[in-house]
Amino acid sequence: MSASTITILQVTDLTKHFPIRKGVLKRTVGHVHAVNGVSFSIRPGESLGLVGESGCGKTTLGKCAVYLQQPTAGKVVFKGTDLGSVPEQELRRLRPQFQMVFQDPFSTLNPRMSVEAMLGEPLMLYEGLKSGQRRRRVMQLLDTVGLRPEHSSRYPHEFSGGQRQRLAVARALALNPSLIVCDEPVSALDVSIQAQILNLLDRLKDDFGLSYLFISHDLGVVEHIADRIAVMYLGKIVELNRESEICRNARHPYTQALMAAIPIPRISAEKKQRKLLAGDVPSPIDLPSGCSFHPRCPKVMERCRQEEPRSLALAGGGEVACHLYETAAAN
Amino acid sequence: MNDDTRKKIIRTFVQNKAALVGLILSMIVVLTCLAAPFLPLPDPVNQTLSKRFKAPSLEHPLGTDNFGRDVLSRVIWGGRVSMVVGVLSVLIAMGLGTIIGLITGYRGGYVDNLTMRIVDVLMCFPTLILGILFMAALGSGMTSLIIAIGISIAPRFARLCRGAVMTVRQNDFVEAARSMGMSDTRIMFRHILPNVLGDVIVMGALWVGAIIITEASLSFIGLGVPPPTPSWGRMVREGLDFMGHAYWVSVYSGGAIFLTVIGFNLFGDGLRDILDPKLRR
Predict the structure, then answer these.
(1) Is A207 exposed, middle or buried (0-12, 13-18, 19+ CB in 10 A)?
(2) Quick check: A54 and A306 in contact, CB under 8 A?
(3) Which of B172, B190, B272, B278 to mutate to test the interface with A (most CBs of A within 10 A)?
(4) pTM of the complete model
(5) A122 in contact with B at a CB cutoff of 8 Å?
(6) Chain B: nearest CA to A96, how far in angstroms?
(7) Which of A157, A291, B27, B50 is most buried, by the most CB atoms less than 10 A from its CB?
(8) Any idea where the domains of chain A sit in the sequence?
(9) Where in the sequence is the domain holding B169, given as residue range(s)?
């Protein structure tokens, strides 16, 4: 990448394959190619949106990026430290600096822990705070995410989905991380609550100088929060560019199709013919030859069926993996 | 734990009539057994052959057995043995089983496979046979009896706990704890254990009764607590031989087992409710 001056997270050629085992002997009969050679970087204070259909490897990529899952290949460098090369002990010591907010508000909180116990635990473990200070910090955190002090003695089942996600955000914030991976943090919420949580995340980003890797299947949501957007299809990033470029000037046929699928609240626009994708996503077990998108691409060429497109740098800092733009980039 | 939570716990318990009854029943049984040396009871092992098979009367409220021993006295003294064996064996089994279940359920893989195959093999044998096996290895006496029974039923607790752990492990809060860099030990004991403890406790309460019977069977073949020390299980067994003309020997000792088991079960259920914040009011 051209402007890789300082990066907080640098992911290079990340690959994650899950073996499929069958039979008594648990022989490996194939692999699910969840993530196939993905590279991107996140700068301090930046939020990178990651969009794609369900099953395209977004969550796996997010988990690999914070080493909750061991990548099959590739490198994850966090603030100059290659997470794959450090010993387990050291990795655990680094973990507080990159946190994750999960999708399901109902399994993200321990039902047997009160809010105070849950938020206080990391403070006790890592900052050695005594109970009085801990209490104060917990109240502060609750206030930060828009909850009231009396919520601290409650248990998760007493909260609504939106409040639970707020608690999950508070927990992620407890250890002053510099990067938060948000894995579909609003997908399980009502639209009105979604906006609240998105605004909260937006505000926290500025207040605490956070960077986000924001994963979602909803372009509208990602548009709202991301500075740059990476579009993922079948385990690969097909296009990565500034938010404005992706929204107004999508290059990759897949991105164009995604943009076309966003409903526009205008009657005149509705009349225009919308190009929607036909067919289903191919199985990640047997990937198509050449470009993974070629079986569904409206602009497919002979070359796409055989040759996998490289990632091409675009003028202005973006990149796209499509044969259509090879000549344009060469010029 | 703050005052609010404590109040809720007490309220839940008082409102849960069944649990309260369970607690009272278990307390009556436990306290009576503990108080045995201070109660005006005849010697439970002293034989008076002239007074064999006396029906319940003022002098002997629950009658006498085939050696003319006072049944009430034997029921109360026998409770001490049965209770200690029942409760301690269950605690040993719960402790062992829970730790094995936590580790295998959380780790999975080879550790899990290997341990669970061993558990499968152990669960093939009836508890009694396993008990005999371990007693033979440990020698007789109450301590080895407790350990033998504890080890014999530990696999059942391990299996139960493992299953529960595997379900809990799927939750995102476990992943969140990992992402904060917490140690596996901490995750297992602080985050997963409280979520599976309810199931384990209920099963423990159920097993106390079963163990009292197992102890009887072991005593019967001379591997339990040696006679003439009374124990509930053995009294039931011995009484069966003369059920026709002296029902009180079996019936009252059996009744004591019944009350204890009911008490522990109801109490166990209540305890599970208390441990679950969702069920607190």
Answers:
(1) exposed
(2) no
(3) B172
(4) 0.82
(5) yes
(6) 5
(7) A291
(8) 9-112+155-330
(9) 21-32+70-279
The neighbouring-strand residues paired with A9 are A42, A78
Amino acid present at B48: T
Spatial strand order in the sheet of A236-242:
A98-101, A179-183, A211-216, A47-51, A228-233, A236-242, A319-320, A312-313
Number of domains in chain B: 1
Q: A4 pLDDT exceeds 50? A: no
* CATH code assigned at B183: 1.10.3720.10
**A147 in contact with B, Cβ within 8 Å:** no
Query: Of the candidates A284, A266, A285, which has an alpha carbon nearest to the alpha carbon of residue A274?
Result: A266
* pLDDT beyond 50 at A2: no
Whole-angstrom distance, CA of residue A316 vs CA of residue A331: 15
* Burial annotation B116-129 (CB, 10 A radius, 16+ → b, else e): beebeebbeeebbe
Q: Domain A9-112+155-330 is of which CATH architecture?
A: 3-Layer(aba) Sandwich (3.40)
pLDDT in tens, B143-166: 888 998 899 899 999 999 999 999
Check CB contact of A157 with chain B, cutoff 8 Å: yes
A148 near B CB under 8 A: no
Q: Do A155 and B278 touch (CB under 8 A)?
A: yes
Which residue type, as a one-letter code, is found at position A126?
Y
Residue pLDDT, tens place only, A192-235: 889 999 999 999 999 999 999 999 988 888 888 999 999 999 98
The CA radius of gyration of chain B, in Å to the nearest whole number, is 22
Contact B175 A100 (CB under 8 A): yes
Res A311: pLDDT: 85
Considering only CB atoms, B180 lies closest to which of A111, A122, A155, namely A122
CA A120 to chain B, closest CA, distance in angstroms equals 13
- Residues B192 and B252 sit within 8 Å (Cβ to Cβ): no
3-state DSSP assignment of residue A207: helix
pLDDT tens-digit map of A5-44: 588 999 999 999 998 888 777 788 888 889 988 999 999 9
Please indicate whether, in this complex, the C-beta atoms of B181 and A95 are within 8 angstroms of each other.
yes
**Res A1: pLDDT:** 42
